[in-house]
Amino acid sequence: MYTRAMSGLMQLEPTMSEAPLGLEGMAWIFKALSDPARLKIIMYLASDAVGCCGDGICGCDLESVTGLSQPTISHHMKCLASAGLVVAQKRGKWMYYSLDTRVFAAAGAYLTQCC
Amino acid sequence: MYTRAMSGLMQLEPTMSEAPLGLEGMAWIFKALSDPARLKIIMYLASDAVGCCGDGICGCDLESVTGLSQPTISHHMKCLASAGLVVAQKRGKWMYYSLDTRVFAAAGAYLTQCC
DNA sequence: CAAACATATTGAAATGTATCAATGTAAGGA
DNA sequence: TCCTTACATTGATACATTTCAATATGTTTG
Residue A87 burial by CB count (10 A; 0-12/13-18/19+): exposed, middle or buried? Predict the structure, then answer.
């Protein structure tokens, strides 16, 4: 039997674009939110802080905010992006990150409405 | 240096009662929400379904809902309870579970208000 | 083109997680 | 008292996650 784990996937996957967000999709979003370093990054992106490169927050800004190494930041941002919480766009040699407020709103609504 | 991991804790911990819910606490809540089986359990608890024992939903109801073994259910419920999302109370030989809507509301508000 | 910089990928170590079988514990009923 | 039932704990297995050092890739600039 061939599993996602065997394929090397499922250690970062979804990126489900505009799907209906079933249990799996919601769980994936919450997993992305389940790390303090990632929440710190999110809070920073939400704060309208001015990044070192002007024009947005780039990866190197997040290294100093979190105290984590560059590869680790890269990993976390990929995780947040795969959940749709963060939009990453390359401009020049920088990656600029921003929050997709729609996904936050959807996840928030899920929690406030589920009970 | 003595770490949480060495102590055997931190593989289920918080249960932070009435704390201010910092990044760590929020991350812990989202981690509890990050598993499809646990979301399924939450949806079931939110559905006002009638359990097999009357008077609420008990552990054995959740085995059939999820298809998971009894020890696994026990593990998941401890996880949800440690995040404060679920309240567990023993009555007779059953554990009755219910959602703490305040914690859901707090987590939902966190997401809708953070950006 | 070469150097410098921002980011991504790989590899590895340490730790955490999900799951079940087996076993323990406590409560109720025959 | 003994058996059954509901749940918890232990032990083991298979993965997943976090993190960094090392290295690769791609972009800008001298």
Answer: middle
Contact check, Cβ <8 Å, B34/A35: no
Is a pLDDT exceeding 80 seen at residue B84?
A: yes
Distances from the Cα of A47 to the Cα of A42, A74, A93, angstroms: 9, 20, 23
Q: Which residues of A fall below an 8 Å CB-CB distance to B?
A: 23-24, 26-28, 30-31, 33-36, 38-40, 42-43, 45-46, 99, 101, 104-105, 107-115
pLDDT in tens, B28-43: 999 999 999 999 999 9
A26 contacts in chain B (CB < 8 Å): 33, 39
Task: Say yes or no for a CB contact (<8 Å) between A111 and B115.
Answer: no
Between CA A96 and CA A58 the distance in angstroms is 5
Q: Does residue B15 have a pLDDT over 80?
A: no
pLDDT digit string, tens, across residues A25-55: 999 999 999 999 999 999 999 998 999 988 8
Which are the contacts of B69, defined by CB distance < 8 A and separation ≥ 6?
A: B63
Q: Considering only CA atoms, which of A94, A111, A55, A59 is closest in space to residue A80?
A: A59
